[in-house]
Amino acid sequence: MDGTGPTLSAGDIAYIKVISFGADSTARVRLEEDSGVQGALLAIDSASGQVKALVGGRDFNQSKFNRATQALRQVGSSFKPYVYTAAIDQGATPEDTILDVPVTFMTASGPYSPHNYDGKFEGTINLRHALAESRNVPALELAAHLGMQTVVGYAHRFGISVHIPALLTVALGAGELTLLEHTSAFTVFPNDGIRVIPSYIVKVTDYDGRVLEQNNPPVQDVISKHTARIMTSMLRDVVLHGTAIAASRMKFPVAGKTGTTNDFTDAWFIGFSPSMTCGVWIGFDQKKSLGNTETGAMAALPVWMDFMTTVHARDELPRDFPPVGEKMERRAAKQVDHSMTSQVLREPAHQRAATRDKRDMLVRSASQKTLE
Predict the structure, then answer these.
(1) Which of 11, 149, 262, 279 could be cross-linked to 183 through a Cys-Cys bond (beta carbons 3.0 to 4.6 Å apart)?
(2) pLDDT at 328 over 50
(3) Cα 124 to Cα 330: distance, rounded to the nearest angstrom
(4) Whole-model pTM over 0.90
């Protein structure tokens, strides 16, 4: 050692990587640091519910604990799609505006004055931009308007079975979920509002190939096709213009949501292509910080991109997700991103008119709010 790092002693375990073998069978190796960081990945065929890949940790020989199915971890902003789904399902549209301004909520535990990740406020923005950029204040405003019982109810409709307290901070992912249930829930979006219960076994056959038992997993209607497609378009913008923009260079359409918990303890990305939904979690078992800036976009998204690129290397996928409504029109995005003009997806006119009153309530004043 050169004196700049820790010294190895007898009995220490050194992790090495074999670089190559020489002609005399000697191996060239290099030291590999074991940071102790764990990770989990789960991939599900969205239409069939079949689990296509499951990784429960970095080394099964070192730890048998399955972090994909057993670990309950806070999910950060990857929970926000449930909040926005509740709003869209009850009549909101991606174009409806909401305030991203300083605000104080009066909660049972006292005043709560949230802030955004960047410490800034953008004023009046629309729901599409608020989700794409993962703005915290608009998500809380929306959750407070809907009521946390409603938000939690929607999460349970998506197949989340664990108890979720109806607290405002849950809208930002303070609740703990498993990667399995969280990923399975996201299959609802590319599957037009339908969730197929995840399964590991397709069928059982005998030696001659005769089917002894066929697994037909239950199917659940969760949300309307229209709501699912609107949410897919909004989650697509997370990739095209938001926190997961690194995935915009992928050669097939993907959508999803990043998640990061306090002090960079957990990093998430849950996303999907038209056929496959995949979730990735990165973190320590001891629930300690991964390090500054180790967000879902930095730590989890690259793993997700590598996996999905490999999975779809030979697939012929559609160039985009199915359209949202009966017709599309192009218009300038209002008060969202002043540096660009984007395509905004609109609901059919008759559905917009029927829900106008509900949508108008989304623009709220920046004042103290009392939560039940």
Answers:
(1) 279
(2) no
(3) 21
(4) no
Q: What number of residues does the chain have?
A: 372
Please calculate the CA angle 176-177-178 and round it to the nearest 5 degrees: 135
Domain CATH for 304: 3.40.710.10
- Mean pLDDT over 167-196 rounds to 98
Q: What is the extent of the structural domain holding 69?
A: 38-370
Neighbours of 299 (CB within 10 A): 25
CA dist., res. 246 & res. 80, Å (int): 20
Count of alpha carbons within 13 Å of 169, Cβ hemisphere only? 16
How many Å apart are CA 283 and CA 224, to the nearest integer? Answer: 34
pLDDT at 312 over 80: yes
- Residue 53 near residue 191 (C-beta atoms within 8 A): no
Element holding 356 (H helix, E strand) = helix 356-360
Q: Which two tokens stand for residue 332?
A: 């300038």
Question: Average pLDDT, whole number, for the chain?
Answer: 85
pLDDT at 352: 42
Mean pLDDT (whole number) for 264-293: 97
Residue 11 belongs to a domain: no
Task: For residue 12, tell me if it sits in a domain.
Answer: no
